[in-house]
Specification:
alpha+beta, signal
Length: 89
């Protein structure tokens, strides 16, 4: 069970990296602002990860945040995402 929790924690740690790389790949000329923050913990009580990401680009705005925690009682978490796009000339 402990190995499963560690695999879930490592998988959750990969999410901010994927989001960050996707943001770099979609970079365009003009307006571009990004913010990202993450943290993680793994100790004898369990393992968890949390992150926040926001961006503004010529295509629109987006924001997301999440957290995942695994311990002896199970795995739980939450995700929130929002965004808006617009077409410019």
């Amino acid at each position: 069970m402990r190995a499963v929790k560690r695999v879930l924690a490592v998988g959750a740690l990969a999410v901010p990296l994927v989001l960050g790389c996707a943001g770099l790949a979609s970079a365009q000329e003009g307006l571009d602002a990004n913010f990202g923050k993450g943290q993680f913990v793994a100790n004898e009580d369990g393992a968890g990860v949390a992150g926040t990401q926001s961006s503004v680009s010529p295509d629109g705005v987006s924001h997301s945040d999440f957290w995942v925690w695994a311990d002896e009682t199970g795995v739980r978490g939450s995700f929130t995402g929002a965004g808006a796009t617009w077409s410019g000339e």
